[in-house]
Design a protein that fits this description.
Helix content: 25-40%
Distance between the termini: 31 Å
CATH superfamily: P-loop containing nucleotide triphosphate hydrolases
Number of strands: 10
Shape: globular
CATH topology: Rossmann fold
Radius of gyration: 17 Å
Strand order of the largest sheet: 6-7-8-3-9-10
Largest sheet: 6 strands, mixed
CATH architecture: 3-Layer(aba) Sandwich
CATH class: Alpha Beta
Number of helices: 9
Strand content: 25-35%
Order of helices and strands: EEEHEEHEHHHHEHEHEEH
Number of domains: 1
Structural class: alpha/beta
Amino acid sequence: MAREMLHIEDLHAWYGESHILHGVNLTVHEGEVVTLLGRNGAGRSTTMRAIVGLTGKRTGSIRIMGKESIGMAPHRVAHLGIGYCPEERGIFASLSAEENLMLPPVLGPDGMSLHEIYDMFPNLKERANSPGTRLSGGEQQMLAVARILRTGARLLLLDEISEGLAPVIVQKLAEMILALKQKGYTIVLVEQNFRFAAPLADRFYVMEHGVIVKQFEKRELRQNTAMLQEYLGV
């Protein structure tokens, strides 16, 4: 069995007085692609934010590559080799694509060079001098992922990266995820687009009301179709 890159036990999280996560348990092993499925409001994005310390109060245990991080500030969590790509992307409109790309510091020895990033994302090389406002939605999403690859993160949390994008761009993102998997990256996806996530993931966790209600492997996908229709409407 590959080593555990992420191990969460009994995770509770709050935004102010709102108790959102009610005891999440999940494990992600090195080299896996794992997808969190669930309806809007199920707690998937909050789980991602809680992992990197961007919610309010948290209790339970979050071990990243064996190190307990539940009490760490977000900037310290980043140094553990984890990268978070939020749904809102966070592209700086007044900076060029390359300036956006060069903003995050390299935090670990595995940070991709500019040359490696442009090999993986040729669109970004073509648009290197274009301001953030001129980039398409797909180019912005590629840039958001490329930024965390520069940091040296080996565990990637990707939140709704296919949302609102044209099918041809979604296909490019799927190819990107498979390429990263081949390079040994570990990826956790939050996805509403089941057709996008299903071929990519090794394992699936289904969330409802802030807890994990079901987990299964890719080979068990067909036998879980009825359950997914119940929880997701797919």
